[in-house]
Every structure is written in C-alpha cells, then in structure tokens.
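Researcher: Following up on the earlier apo prediction. This time include the ligand. It's zinc ion, with the SMILES given after the sequence.
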Amino acid sequence: MMYLFYAFIATVSSILGGLLPLYTRAKDIKHQYLIGFASGVLISTALFEMLPEAVSEIGAERFALPLALGFFSLYLVEKAVMIHACTETECDIHNAGWVGMIGLGFESLLDGIAIAAGYVVNPVLGLVIGFAVIVHEFPVGFSTSVIMRYSGYSVEQSLLALVLTSVPTVIGALIFPVFPPYLFGPVLAFTAGTFIYIGASDLLPEAHRTVNWTVVSMVLAGAVLTPLIGWVFSL
Ligand SMILES: [Zn+2]
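Model: Understood. Below is the ligand-bound prediction.
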C-alpha cells in the first residue's frame, strides 16, 4: 500500500504549497520557476514512464484511445467549468473561485488513481508518478490559495478550498483497487493524457507569463529529471 503513502504526501505537498501564500509573504515571489519545473516533470513522466508502461500492458494499437480521452476529457471539464463560471465579463481564471476548484479536485482524484495504477503495474513506476504528482501539487496548492484570495475569499474559505482540492488524491488511491486489472493499462494511458494536458496547457503558459531563460531551464530540468529517476531506479 506504498501508493497510499505517496498519495498522502502529495496531498500534504499541495496543502503546504497553499499555506505559503496564506500565511507568509511568499505570494510576492515568482512561482513561475516552480510551475515550470513541475510542468517539465509532468510531461516527461507521461512520455517516458506512463505511456511505455501502458503500451506494454495493452499493446501499441490500443493505448491511443484512452490517452486521447484523458487529454480531451480534462480539456472539456476545464473549459466547461470556465465557460460556466465566466458568463458575461471577459473570461479570467481568477474569477472562477469555487467553480474552478471542481476541476482542480477532479485532477487530484486522477493523480491518486495514476499513482496507484502505476504502482500496481510496477512499484518503480508508482514511485516516479508519485514524485511527479508531489512536485506538481506544490505549485497547484500555491495557485489554489492565490486564486481564492484574488477572488475575494477569506483565508478560512481558501483553506477549505485547499483541503477539498487536495484530499481527492488520497481518495483516488483508495478507490483504485475496485478497478479490474485489465483496466490498469488504459487507466495509465488515460491519466498520462491528463498529465500532458495539465503540463502543456495549464502549467507551461502560466510559467511563461514572463519569458526568461531561468523559466526555460527550470522546465528542461524538470523534463530531464523524470527519465533520470526512472533510469537510476531501474538499474
Ligand atoms: Zn495534480
């Protein structure tokens, strides 16, 4: 049940990341570096670890559909939530508030499922996915608090949102055992699709609000780290 532990650490990571802007002056520092690093880790975890494992589970002909479903269903959830939240005025994610938190909670749930699915296929894969989730949840928690505060919510309400969007990772890992084994491969490909979507479509543009070489090198450092960890642990 090591994957439950990884999921728990990811939840803690998200909450710690969210406490920073609530109780310290950390909201003033640039978090683009952290976000850039996390996006590199997420994307390369999907490409180097999750997809090869999914292919070896279900075959090269069958991994594309769950992958595409993961990518586009997260896109749909996110845009539906945003369109719903931003009706009249020009759309700004900072106005999303509570509605935007639904998407974040769903994403955390998928994180927990991904860790468990990876672990069951191969414990090293579970560790690598767990690491990717822990690393990206820290800036996600950070952003959650910042978004809630910018939307005009109190510190207590932001804390509640933080807990509600972080705990689903553990829930995802807990409910995973009800999945029949033949679904491990497709679930892995599906969650890889969600990782690529979040990394490339949410985190990368956020990291590059101001473009500089430090952000670029943080993204690349994150991208190189995942295959490196996979390689070291499989020696
Ligand atoms: Zn996540």
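Model: Residues 2-24+35-233 form one domain.
Researcher: Noted. I'll compare it with the apo version next.
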